[in-house]
Amino acid sequence: MQQRTLAQFQVSAVGLGCMGLSHAYGQQDESASLATLDRALDLGVNFFDTAEVYGPLRNEILLGKALKAKRDQVVIATKFGFTYRQERTDFGEITGTDGSPENARAVAEASLRRLQTDVIDLYYLHRVDPAVPIEDTVGAMARLVEQGKVRAIGLSEVSAETLRRAHATHPIAALQSEYSLWTRDVESNGVLDACRELGVAFVPFSPLGRGFLTGKLAPVAELSEGDFRRSLPRFQPEHAQVNRELVRVIEDMAAAKGVTAAQIALAWVLAQGEDIIPIPGAKRIPHLEQNVAAVDVRLDAADRARLDETFAPENVSGSRYPAALAAMAQK
């Protein structure tokens, strides 16, 4: 597996976003999830992304069980900062944000127990809490680094201005935001530029457009009741029909190269820079293997230009989040 640099870590060029193994995308089977994690290790994947809210809690417990024996071989990232109802097992449980120093400490301690480890490699603020200055939140995260409970800290879905303020308080190792062919906000809002200016690795989540860019996703009406995508505007029929035509360009390019649409979409993300480390999710081993193999797919300048033009932001139909979730991003 090719590797890329994230702060003091060398991580696999393609990581694994673990949310779907126990949360958000329909039914999950623990034995299948454990098998997927084992196969990821076999393939050289060493960068695993989870969060307190995934499950909730269950995803960290799953990773603790799966990775404990290989702990010194992997980099584990987790997150705090959402408030939620623990009895829910879909995104309906999110009720707000809590970036208080007290919550930063409490969640870190609980995550350490669930992950069965004595240190969190990368600890992210999941979303900015508008009631707490970013300097206060990052200051508390920095103290966890000083105490040896966290190795590096990151932010998720923040603005360039917030990143700079945070970085002035303590070095930020990584910024995680959604980035794919059909979600390219970070190119135009200064976030990618700020990351490069400050030497912050950029970690795209949902680099396959939550499965839509693979061309294989069922219509939204056929997704299970607990599937998060049922609430997303882009997946609704009136928008999905428009977006499906864009995906045909990916499929045509994939057919010409003898690869899959998912591999083309992921190769495009990888080609945006060596400082970019995508974390596609995969519930099933064949999807995981396909994602890992994308590191060997080459796109030439003409390929990239065609994809850039096809997926220009004005061509994508529908917003990426409903209003309540959108309001929590890019603060």
Automatic annotation (TrEMBL):
Give yes or no: UniProt keyword Oxidoreductase. Answer: yes
Q: Which GO terms describe its cellular component?
A: cytoplasm
Record's keyword terms, sorted: Oxidoreductase
Pfam families for the chain: Aldo_ket_red
Which Gene Ontology molecular function entries are recorded, alphabetically?
oxidoreductase activity
Give the NADP-dependent oxidoreductase domain ranges.
14-309
InterPro entries found in the cross-reference section:
Aldo-Keto_reductase, NAD(P)_OxRdtase_dom_sf, NADP_OxRdtase_dom
PROSITE patterns, sorted: PROKAR_LIPOPROTEIN (PS51257)
Supply the PANTHER family for this chain.
AFLATOXIN B1 ALDEHYDE REDUCTASE, ALDO-KETO REDUCTASE YAKC [NADP(+)]
Q: What is this protein called?
A: Aldo/keto reductase
